[in-house]
Write a structure and sequence with these properties.
By secondary structure, this protein is of the alpha/beta class. It has one domain: P-loop containing nucleotide triphosphate hydrolases (Rossmann fold, 3-Layer(aba) Sandwich). It is built from 4 helices and 3 strands; from the N terminus they run E-H-E-H-E-H-H. Strand 2, helix 2 and strand 3 form a beta-alpha-beta unit. The longest helix has 18 residues. Keywords: Centromere, Chromosome, Nucleus.
């Protein structure tokens, strides 16, 4: 499901499926995009950040058009102990690879991959980013 911001409308709570992963999309060309994500973070339970949230930063192929600092986004990922993925959606190969990566993250967060939990996956992401 896609939402432009949080909180989600409560009138359909009884019909909403379980939420296994939240992907916050930040367009690097839009300060409004970052502000919307920052405002939405307040509506996510703190325990949910342990492996079930990630930040997807789009538009990274056009660094000269950036309105949002990469450093600010990295700090956001650190503050919420959540991975930050960077991609350029206009390139089909990158778009497909990003979709596959997000799908794999979702499978792990939903408990569909034996031997992995959302928390262990988050630790693996953190260790690979530190290398």
């Amino acid at each position: 499901h896609i939402a432009t911001s949080l909180p989600l409308p409560s009138e359909r709570d009884h019909l909403r499926p379980r939420i296994d992963l939240i992907v916050f999309v930040i367009d690097i060309k839009s300060k409004c995009s970052l502000k919307n994500v920052e405002a939405s973070l307040a509506y996510v339970d703190g325990s949910f950040f342990l492996g079930k949230v990630c930040f997807l930063v789009t538009g990274v192929g056009r660094v000269n058009c950036c309105s949002v600092e990469i450093n600010a986004i990295s700090k956001l990922g650190e503050a919420y102990s959540s991975p930050v993925l960077f991609c350029e959606l206009e390139l089909e190969g990158v778009r497909v690879a990003t979709a596959q990566r997000l799908l794999r993250m979702l499978q792990i967060c939903a408990g569909l991959v034996s031997g992995f939990s959302a928390l262990s996956f988050n630790l693996l992401m953190r260790n690979s980013a530190d290398d």
